[in-house]
Amino acid sequence: MSLSFLPLSVLIVVSPMPVTTALDVPVTTAAPATAHTRPLDRAHAHNDYLHKRPLLDALDHGFCSVEADVFLVDGKLLVAHERSELRTGRTLQALYLDPLLERVRENGGPVYPGGPGFTLLVDIKSDGEETYVALDRVLAGYREMLTTVEQGVVETKAVTVIISGNRAWERIMADPTRLAGVDGRLSDLGSDRPSHLMPLVSDSWELHFDWRGHGPMPEAEHAKLRQIVNETHMKGRRLRFWATPDRPSPERAALWNELLAAGVDHIGTDDLAGLEAFLSSAKK
Q1: What backbone phi and psi angles, to 5 degrees, belong to 141?
Q2: Is-above-0.90 flag for pTM?
Q3: How many domains, the chain?
Q4: For the segment 262-276, what is each residue's pLDDT rounded down to a tens digit?
Q5: Domain-embedded: residue 2
Q6: Which pick of 60, 81, 197, 201 has the fewest CB atoms within 10 Å?
């Protein structure tokens, strides 16, 4: 299977209460996966780490993709939205990589029984090159579950890591063996970079569209959205927008409907239950 990074799926898990360390920092622990929740291959948990139970809350709602902001601090990859929110025990390993690896081992390959892959979007907030080097070193310890590109040959596994934020393009491209792809922007649509290097294109909705869900979507913007989707998919990439309306409202529902109908691959939200209900209803 080529690493075109088509929409991915997850199933629900039953999660235990968080464990508390000596520093009183919650650490995500893995739990046996169940097969009772339909995977939502378009659902992306934006700022996932802000939820009460990072990763697990998203999985409980059937999300296929989660996003974690990271800062490199004293050699550790700490997860937080702002530097002021950094806590020693909230590492990328503790909140995401360790529980994902436990599930992969329990299930003999996938994150969930019978399920396809899972996307971990790592948004780098500190220096791009320095943080990537540290991230690559950490990811090497989880290679058994990570999609790998070696000399241009792709081996697709349970979890695909994609780097966003401060992206050290030249440093990443120079690696003969990669454990992560890079998140592009709409300005990169014409790029000839391979899909295994740039599997995803993400950008701000507000920078490219005026419509916010009030009334019908203007035909010109409707056509523009579909052109963007088609061009992205022709290159074997997925598409995501951020800065879309995210409070429960008719406007949000209208915009989600347009994203879904146009074929946008990832619909991002902080409202896990809201998007789960919307996508579950849309599947019926």
Answers
A1: -75, -5
A2: no
A3: 1
A4: 999 999 999 999 999
A5: no
A6: 81
